[in-house]
């Protein structure tokens, strides 16, 4: 079961060998320290903007709010709102989808449940959850059409009582009205039994094609990728060996926690759009109708597993077409881009189209890295944006908005398998100009 797999992922805790061989010297910028990130928010514990203190006290008495069990994981920005997810790893999380107003000067600002408290409250046994209900999302995305896309796992108490509240679902909100646009439950064929854990959602759309959006949903523990078509309100599961773990790259040490990770594909980052026509499809003896080719501007989707140091890619021309994506012969259309380095296992990633740069959170080295796909992917061409062995322990999400990188780090391995010191800062959100972040690096080529 999912619960068992997560518990057996991290098998030992120790302080020795925390940073291994350190950062490779060849190809890295400056003195390997990178640039200084601007710290925007920092918390030792997460708290919420409660209706009143009586509500907070009652939630604490009833176990609805246990401060130590709240870990921020995903981040997304829209105008003056910064959205932050708090998955229900354990009981005591009162709101899993939240936002912070960026107008605040409070660096320890409490979280505001989104769209409201009711949508985030776990239903009682006799209650039927509402359509806009949110149980436990990991990462989220804001698209150019002013929509918030949420991949809700539907699970509560993932590492303790492990209860399914809702089917795993794509939940889409209109950010201008805070109203639900659509809730789409994944089909049984999209799910790999109890193994599936959908930890991310990546949206493929432009502001001119809002009704033809696609979402790519990695199944990091079921080793697959689900594609969702907004226009057809349909989904399909894509399989490939590249979605699996590399068994030789699964032993990790992060923030003093030694681990063997079972997690496969965790992130997808979309490169610039380009017209591929039917050249790619000509490689396979498959007839594709004109209807299936209606969305002609395709991207390169870069992806990786957490337990791997390799990066792979595939054209979204393949993923968007159900016939092609699910045909076993299509495996030849996936590409091995290269190896990022000996200890370069990565969590979150994001692509800056303007500068043609892929950003990656390298979790063993406590750093934010970059690579420009105009160069071959080798350790020498992967450069350092920022590194900090205290503040950047486990970069769990990265997003770009208005030419700014937003980075969330949260010491998740210690939270799950060791013990955080709640007398010190544990969770941080940073920002930095994309232009400044790659200045002087090989990524600026």
Automatic annotation (TrEMBL):
InterPro entries: 6-blade_b-propeller_TolB-like, MRJP/yellow-related. The keyword Secreted applies. This is Yellow-c2. It comes from the Eukaryota. Belongs to the major royal jelly protein family. Keywords: Secreted, Signal. It is found in: Secreted. The keyword Transmembrane does not apply.
